[in-house]
Automatic annotation (TrEMBL):
It comes from the Bacteria. One of its GO terms (biological process) is tyrosine biosynthetic process. The keyword Oxidoreductase applies. The keyword Glycoprotein does not apply. Signal peptide: none annotated. InterPro entries: 6-PGluconate_DH-like_C_sf, NAD(P)-bd_dom_sf, PDH_C, PDH_N, Preph/Arog_dehydrog, Prephen_DH. This is Prephenate dehydrogenase.
Amino acid sequence: MNTKPSIESISFIGLGLIGMSLLRALRSTPIAVEAGIIFSGFDPSFTEADIEEAGMLGLDQFIEDREELFSADVVVLAAPVLTNIALLDEAARLSPPTTIIADVSSTKGDIFKRAQELNLPYFGLHPMAGKELQGFRESSPDLFKEMPIFLCHDHKLPYKGRGLILRKMIESIAGSLVTSNPILHDQIMARVSHLPQLMSTLLIDYCSSQLRVSGPGFASLTRLAGSPWEIWHDIIGTNNKNIADAIEEFAMKLVELSWEVRDIDNESLESRFDEANRLHKYMQLPGWRT
């Protein structure tokens, strides 16, 4: 008799860009194909037409019954951050003790703390991938290719049983798997993700009266301005201190830069450009993330 742990079912709550892309990517892994894993999901915004289209993209079952959803071997919470945190209470009531509760929230501090309070087997994921356009129709199984995925986990969960299987599946779809504690994760995200978003949002507003004469460089720099507030409301609300600290630190850098420009301090300005050029070239190298 085979008593080895296995994953036979994975359910997703939230079937937007990230949730559906992750479903499609995991479905294509050799582990999922060999095991015949069933992928189910739910999204409160879905119409009958959406359900049918999602089925063609890889969703095996659209399930509205909460107990059935939470009874899967792995449950992936792919809603906005605050919704995911609230869903942990449902998971604690409805999920079997062996069910792994994963999420793809962009911040990890608050949700990690709540999962610990509820004593849930928690597997916190944050794929460093996305688009300014949202929705399952924008999803792609290749969205995470060559991109890092953060993992904030509960003790030894990713190294045994179903946790090990899930980790191997994630590793097979990502460029790299980066293990981090939730506090450090949120500090890093404030700099490399949340600050760029708010800079883009502020810049396009600052230049609103000159948009018609802007060029492609401006369009590239303000690409993130298309991101929806519905997503960022929760991100800012759960990482506000780190984001505010990053903004204040960067604002001081801007003031220093303004002094150099005003004084035509070419030596300092050239040094900044040289370092920026070096870092940009480094990011173009094959495998630079590894």
